[in-house]
Amino acid sequence: MPRVKRGMAHVKHRKNILEQTKGYKWGRKNLIKLAKTAINKAGVFAYKDRKIKKRTMRGLWQIRIGATVKELGLSYSKFIGFLKKNKIELDRKILSDLAQNHPPIFEKIVKKITNK
Q1: Are the CB atoms for 100 and 66 separated by under 8 Å?
Q2: Is the pTM of this model over 0.90?
Q3: Cα–Cα distance between 105 and 45 in angstroms, integer?
């Protein structure tokens, strides 16, 4: 059987790795060993932070709702309690959007749940 040297595949693989690390600092952009570890770490952080992003967005929604409700004379926890008691099933993302972009509608919701 003839010998196969894999030269082109090896060069292509290295080139691919170094293309992914374009813009990185120091040796991580042009030294293959450092570039491989940099890509692996970047992938791990990207995966982890996609999960954390959901957590931070929920916190932001809660802060927005809390600030708007505070202006209307309620606390965040009482507001959420009233929503559950009146069986209004709007999630925090929608409530936050209403509080920020459509204040009159949000005020109507607050008045409706506090009058009962």
Answers
A1: no
A2: no
A3: 39
